[in-house]
Structures are given as structure tokens and as C-alpha cells.
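>> Question from a student workshop board

For tomorrow's exercise we were told to take the sequence and the ligand below, predict the bound structure, and bring the output to class. My setup keeps failing. Could a helper post the expected result so I can at least see what it should look like? The ligand is alpha-D-galactopyranose.
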Amino acid sequence: MAVSKLHVASLVLVAISALSSDSATAQKDDLAARPPMGWNSWNHFRDKVDDASVRAQAEAMVSSGMRDAGYTYINIDDTWEGERDANGNIQTNSKFPDMKALADFVHSKGLKLGIYSSPGAKTCAKFEGSLGHELQDARTYAAWGVDYLKYDLCGLRTEMRAAPTPEAAHKIMVDAYVKMRDALRSTGRPIVYSLCQYGDDAVWEWAPSVGGNLWRTTGDITDKYAKMAEIGFSQAGLARFAGPGHWNDPDMLEVGNGGMSLDEYRTHMSLWAVLAAPLLAGNDLSTMAPETIALLTNRDVIAVDQDSAGKQGDRVSAEGPIEIWTRPLADGSKAVGIFNRHPKPLTARVDFSALGFTGAVKAKDLWQAQDLGSVSKPYTVTVPGHGVLLLRVSQ
Ligand code: GLA
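>> Workshop helper replied:
Here is what the output should look like for this input. Compare the format with yours to find the bug.
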């Protein structure tokens, strides 16, 4: 009798722990079932971001149609932080008089609020970090109504440099990310967890196990074709590490910031969509030109990025400056990006049989919104300098 009671009790325990780990996984995956879409303050505003500019972004995200196209997060990057009070609670600085009120405002627009911190004593911009205050900070974020945290290694590198071995330094970093993951989870509030450590230490191999919903795979992007292309095209081979709930993050968008041509920004959006990358606009949404809105809200391109299968694309071929990347999509079709990395137009020859198709294919040009009908190989096309032809191809 005693034995069978014990047996029942242990079965129940096993069932409960299976349930809770299942629901923890489910919650984590639901949180970023698709690559997060939104806006982040850093690329355009840097340390000038404040309450008024964030409110203006939220309003513009709605009025521009970006919210309806899928953009959700309004993310405040570094430089919002103030001092800690006598109890160690983090305060905002004078640029952000009331973070809870700001979160309420963002939520009232049907959007979500993101914030930024570092596991070190200081952030990259030398503001207050979370070291030694992880649980307290997570609780503060939850109380404010924060929905997303970018946790940027920066300041912790001081501790890591003092470690006796690379393994010990790695452990300091991993432990710090685990600590904040547990702190966020303990609040009970679903908060997307974005790791930022610039792609060191093969982060894609361990980021999901420390709770990362997304992790930066590279150093910082700039609003220049050379840097954007270096970052974007370096993502070959990382596809198997991404999936619903956990994404490679080649950094935020520069679309609309003025440093690239329209063809170059089209390449930026297309490559990020093929990569299943988070789409975090990094421009001033309140002053966007119509062509910037068109770039950011192209439904067909967003549908590639947000495809429900959650499979990241990869490079299929590189012939000099012509690169072909494909991404398998949930309906059996494929996104096919034909990229020209040369500054002048070049003619590319696309052999669909080398991309897993047989015979004639049906193709749509996603930027021209043009059905190409039935295409038989070989398909020859001129791609603008630094530009792209982005197709959705089915059998
Ligand atoms: C690092 C990050 C950037 C940004 C800044 C803020 O450089 O990689 O994305 O968050 O810090 O200081």
C-alpha cells in the first residue's frame, strides 16, 4: 500500500514536472514564435532618446501602418538609466520621468515596450548596469510593464578579462545570462529575452539553453552598405540554430536612416527576411519618407521573414559578387534572393533545378509585386548594383 502510494506520488511528480517544463518551453516559444518585429532607439537616436521621442515612435508606428504590418515592440536602448535609490532600485534618468506611464501609453497603442540593460556594473554607454541587482531589476521592469529586455554584455567584460582562463570567462558570461533569465521568469511576466554579446563564443550554440529568444550574431551595424553586407552575408551556415522561440539576430535595421540607396535598403530587408532575422526598425518613424514606409511594410517580404515554419534561409551559391540565398517556407514554396554585391548592375543566371525545383516554376517578384507566371530555366535577370531580386517560388 505504502509502496503504491509512493509510486502514485512519484508518477504525479513526474507528470507535474513534465507539465511545468513543457509549459515553460511553450511560454518561451510563444513569446517569440516569429522573429520579433518592432523599433529600437539606438541606430538613430543614440543617447538623445527620451520620453517624447519614444511616444512619437509609438504613434508613428500606428499611423504609418507598421503596427498593422506586424511591428509590435517599441524598444528603448541604452541611456535611459538613472542612479539607484537607497534600496538599490534602479531609477530612470531625467529623460524618462515616468517609465510606467510610458509603458501604459505604448500599451494603449496596442504595442509592447522593450528596455535595455547590461549584466555588468555599467552599460556600453557607461550608464548603470544590473550586476548584483538582477532580480530587483527584473521586478522593476515587470512592475513598469516591460515586455522585452535586451541584455548587453559590455560592462561584464571587465570581470571576464580578470578570469584566469577563457573557460572561466565564458562561465562568467553564461552564468550572468542564466541569472537574468531566471530573474525574468520569476516575475511571471512574459518578457522577450534578447542577448547581445556580438556573436562571440559561438553564441548560437548555447544561447537557447540560457533562455535567449534572440541573440546578436555580429558586432554593431552601421548605416553603410559595406557594413550591412558584411554582417548580413556572414550569416551563412547559421540556419540550423534558429527556430520558433529562438532566433539569430544580425542586428537592427538601418532602413530609412539615409546612408544607403533604395536598392541597398532593399537588399538589407530582403536578406534579413531570408535570414528569419528580427525586424527592428532603427530609424525615426515620425519623419519617414513614403519610400521608407514602403520598404518597411512590404507585406510579401514580411511574410517571408515571419513565415510560420520558422526555418532560416541560407546561401546556395556564390559566383563572384552574385549570391543566391533560399529560404524554405511553410507552404512548400521558397524565398529566393538573387543578390548582386557588385556596385554596378550584373546579369545573373538562375537555375531553379539547382534550388530544388524540377521543370517550370511559378515565381513572384516580391518588390515589384509582379507575378512572373511560369518560368522555365534558365532564368536570366539583370540585378542592380548592390541590389536584389527577391522571389517567392513554387513548383
Ligand atoms: C552596444 C550594442 C548596441 C547598443 C549600444 C548601446 O554597442 O551592440 O546595439 O545597444 O551598445 O550602448
